[in-house]
């Protein structure tokens, strides 16, 4: 999982427990602050640890169950186990489930301290402030609960097969902070998110699904179609970005909704020789606060983006999108085959298809777009799609990610996600 780079917001209730009157104001602040964000040090560690432990536990249990499957309906049983596993490790649902658990714990703590302060005949004005904090905490929990309903949307994360760890990271680091912002709290939202990896693995599709799951507006910043020179393209891109940002701020003031702005192939404009690189540095430093927008930058060449633009203040969330492994390959095949009328999923061995796709590793790799194309071609040309048909179309298609690209990507992950090039 990409490294969590959240800031620390420690909270202490010792002043209330000690009952020191002159320390009460600090206690009130602590009570009000406790529910502001899950990304305080303790909560963030708790969320990530819980997810990783749960993820590992589910994988191990599924592996054990798969090893015991036999008999005539072996393929069908294996697929049911994989489907159960996919739902249980849903990154989006898990992140929200854990966030709700933490919010419940915080609410209970707030209630206990509120009752404690009432028993100590605390000043009525200050007690009212704590009561407001309680009401705010309940409102935030309700908004988080509403967001969790987006899992079943065909436009949200449910439209992306697999990649649950990446969904978890985006939910934990961004989506679960939105209820606090919508409730009027001062939450530090990211200025930009960097998505990188080999071409064809669905970075742009991920951006759209992410915005929908977050209930955010989605816009795309592009250069003018009439721009011809490189400098004109860079300038019209930045002008368009700024215009969208200003509309984003107006939309937030009117509707309380944040905007995700997609910058596809961001290295076209975010590079050391770009005529707008200095303007972009200034923009990305405070665009989240100034315009209530977050940039979603995708690229196949992240090291072409200057490290100053990739700094922790400008792009605190950096996600590497790997070529599909066995689990993600199986899930992508299922995603594109399950609703086709000429495919009987009971007769399709997804594990074998995934094995075939991943057999070319580590020297080459298929991308997710190729798996989609393989499924569509097979469904189009076969009256009844069989396992042999799918294997034929896989072997007919040459992997598009070569060894050089895989080695380049491995180096990028080490430098960017590993943190050795972060400012």
Description:
- It is a single chain.
- The chain is mainly α.
- Residues 1-45 have low confidence and may be disordered.
- It has 16 helices and 5 strands.
- α10 links the parallel β2 and β3.
- It is globular.
- It has a 5-stranded parallel beta sheet with strand order 2-3-4-1-5.
- α2 packs parallel to α6 (124-148) and α10 (230-255) runs parallel beside α11.
Report how far apart the termini are: 20 Å
Shape: globular
| Number of discrete helical segments | 16
**Biggest sheet architecture:** 5 strands, parallel
Write the layout of secondary structure elements.
Layout: H1 14-18, H2 24-33, H3 41-67, H4 74-88, H5 91-119, H6 124-148, H7 164-173, H8 178-182, E1 192-196, H9 203-213, E2 217-220, H10 230-255, E3 259-263, H11 277-291, E4 293-299, E5 317-320, H12 326-337, H13 350-358, H14 368-381, H15 387-396, H16 403-416
Could you give a short description of this structure?
It contains 16 helices and five strands.
List the main descriptive attributes of the protein structure presented here.
423 residues, mainly alpha, Rossmann fold, 16 helices
